[in-house]
Write a structure and sequence with these properties.
mainly alpha; globular
């Protein structure tokens, strides 16, 4: 089924907003970022403690979950976008994954200029979140195609 020309525009806007959110967080200085993480930690602590146990929720855990989650969402969005434009799934997945890697690399690079410590492990965590989101969408597409 072919979609009407221009119907991918809302998805394009969503991808741009997601990247702005990701890179905007990376522009925050160390203190502002820590305050934000602390606020999110307070909100999520009761839920996360059900998974990791009482007293085991740390700012480090919240930050790493944020990395994974942001790029998980971006993976959902970008694979949907590329699969829509290039219906060959393996090519769309590899194309999306390449873009996800460069978005993660740029994210950590931005942190150099905001006075925070960029870490290669965060790039790999971002790419992992991106891949999981992309694979989820890919699985849904394959499942619905074969139904």
């Amino acid at each position: 089924m072919m979609k009407a020309k221009g119907s991918h525009r809302p998805l394009t806007v969503l991808i741009i907003l997601t990247l702005a959110l990701i890179w905007g967080h990376s522009l925050l200085g160390r203190e502002a970022s820590s305050e934000e993480s602390g606020f999110v930690m307070e909100l999520l602590e009761p839920v996360l403690e059900m998974v990791v146990g009482e007293g085991n929720v740390t700012e480090f855990l919240v930050r790493k979950l944020a990395h994974f989650t942001e790029f998980f969402v971006l993976g959902l969005e970008l694979l949907t976008f590329f699969a829509y434009r290039k219906p060959l799934f393996p090519q769309a997945f590899l194309f999306a994954l390449t873009h996800g890697f460069f978005a993660a690399f740029l994210d950590e690079t931005i942190q150099i200029f905001s006075g925070r410590g960029p870490m290669i492990q965060d790039v790999w965590l971002d790419v992992s979140g991106f891949a999981v989101g992309s694979l989820l969408i890919l699985g849904i597409m394959v499942w619905t195609k074969h139904r």
